[in-house]
Specification:
This protein has 161 residues and is mainly alpha-helical. The protein contains five helices and no strands.
Length: 161
């Protein structure tokens, strides 16, 4: 496949992802439209990196330089779009994010650092006790299975005699 065809395939894949996400954004949720640019350009970066890896020894130095330039351009645009997307997300859901952070800080303050190792040790002990009980049950079932197996062998021997 020629260089121009691979370049066209990568651009078509980026465009198809953008169209699918736009369609999902109009039908399902606005978040698909909000993240459309960052996902499309991010996937474009991935496509071009794969294209570079696949055509590394097969194309000339001019095409390799062009691939690197296109990938760096896409990466730069992707970072700008990612910052823009996070900015829009914070502007739209800033109060919810702030409330979540405040509740998380309150939960962290409620945990006493001094009792934290004791709580961890208690949980580890509970887990070890549960596993010991499980192992004891398994040992008992193995013993019972052996006894049943022996009984079956004895019955077969008694039938033969």
């Amino acid at each position: 496949m020629s260089y121009a065809h691979l370049l066209l395939v990568c651009l078509l894949m980026i465009g198809s992802i953008a169209l699918v996400m736009y369609y999902l954004g109009t039908k399902i949720s606005y978040n698909y439209i909000l993240y459309n640019g960052s996902v499309s350009i991010g996937s474009g970066v991935v496509f071009f990196v794969f294209k570079i890896l696949l055509t590394m020894g097969k194309v000339g130095p001019i095409e390799q330089v062009l691939d690197v330039v296109i990938t760096l351009l896409l990466l730069t645009v992707w970072l700008v779009i990612l910052i823009e997307t996070f900015t829009v997300e914070v502007m739209e859901n800033g109060r919810e994010i702030k409330a979540s952070i405040i509740s998380m800080v309150k939960r962290i303050k409620m945990v006493e650092i001094k009792t934290l190792p004791q709580q961890i040790i208690k949980k580890i002990n509970m887990i070890s006790v549960k596993t010991k009980n499980y192992m004891v049950k398994n040992k008992l079932t193995i013993k019972i299975q052996k006894l049943i197996g022996e009984q079956i062998k004895q019955r077969e021997l008694n039938k033969r005699v």
